[in-house]
Amino acid sequence: MTSFQPAAGDTPPPDAVHPRDSSPQTPTSVSRLNETIRDFVQKWGAVWVEAEITAWNLRGGHVFGRLKDASGEGMLSFRMWSSTLQRTSDDLKVGDRVVACVKADYFVKTGDFSFTVTSMRHTGLGDQLERLERLRATLRAEGLFDPSRKRPLPFLPHVIGLITGERSDAEKDVHRNAELRWPHVRFRTIHAAVQGDRCVPETIAALKTLDADPEVDVIIIARGGGDPQTLLGFSDEKLIRAVAAASTPVVSAIGHENDRPLLDDVADLRASTPTDAAKRVVPDVSEQRALVQQLRARARTRLTQRIAHDIAGLEQLRSRPVLRDPASMLTGRTQELWSLTTRGRDVVRRQMDAAARTTAELRASLRALSPGATLDRGYAIAHLADGVIVRDAAQAQPGDAVVVTVGRGSFAARSEGEIAESGAASAGDSPT
């Protein structure tokens, strides 16, 4: 860039003066200074840094945060655009140790200096996290994370088994919050390493000891959080399978809300923090007392309403005429009963009269058709000795004994033989 060469006696404009050529007589402008700084910063290009995330704010899909050195002496602000965030596979949060690719930006108009992150990942955890995800998929396929395997926690455990670090804040949080909710709660605590090589074997041994104790109703495995590297022990396959095989319900209280070791998936209940575990395992005595009072009040109200309803119903029944004067029901029905009786008597009488007339008619018809009536008119019936009725005169031979039946009785006779036609004709005018 060519320096401005003013003529003798001329003062150059500030924008034309390079910052390194400035002087009290020939100052440069703020814009020219900012442009010079921007040009210098842009020459740096992208830089990889290792640091810890101390701020992580998501606004409008973009991240605005801060990074600091492990020593805490160096710190920088950064922004990560949403497109970069979508390409980032790691679950990043405050407290994570990361390696980030940053590019310096200097804004000419405002003079602000910032860094844009183009890539970010956990420090040294890439392969480990990949193995954990493969293990998570394997255990899920085996059904160890199936919700149907989750055992319900007891309403009020007699003894709570606690596995945590010795003299740790997690132990204090669990005890303090549980005792605040239920003062008579009892604990059986076994201290174990919560990170490092001793974490898995000591936690498994403590779990087996508490699981074999018949007085322990629920087991809490608690730790006060940490970076992903220190939580790897709680994703160990041996520990996960030991928890799945336990007969006592297990509560995982590892880390903070964003920490998700495999223990969270296999446990019967995941608590976000040790404090949350105490609140979820032990009921609040004040809430339970308030609930009992509420249930008593509801029962009293329902019982009072039921009694009042039954009393009102009873009074309503008692006020009805039939119960107020039971005889009125019979009195009111007397006339109806008398009328029905009279009608019944008349109907029976008419039916009997009709039946008597019908019987007389049938008797008269029967009498008219009866052989006895014919005999009463003077006719007779002649029987031979063998009982055969004589219908033809030729049947009775001379000398045959004949029984003659008339209207009143019978008498014996003897046949004289067949009478001549003339005699029979003269004798037929009157019955014999």
Automatic annotation (TrEMBL):
Transmembrane segments: none annotated. The keyword Transcription regulation does not apply. The keyword Hydrolase applies. It is found in: Cytoplasm. Its main location: cytoplasm. Residues 1-30 are annotated as: Disordered. Keywords: Cytoplasm, Exonuclease, Hydrolase, Nuclease. It is an enzyme of class 3 (hydrolase). Residues 29-121 form the OB-fold nucleic acid binding domain. Residues 144-365 form the Exonuclease VII large subunit C-terminal domain. It comes from the Bacteria. Its EC number is 3.1.11.6. It catalyses: Exonucleolytic cleavage in either 5'- to 3'- or 3'- to 5'-direction to yield nucleoside 5'-phosphates. Belongs to the XseA family. Bidirectionally degrades single-stranded DNA into large acid-insoluble oligonucleotides, which are then degraded further into small acid-soluble oligonucleotides. Heterooligomer composed of large and small subunits. This is Exodeoxyribonuclease 7 large subunit. The gene is xseA.
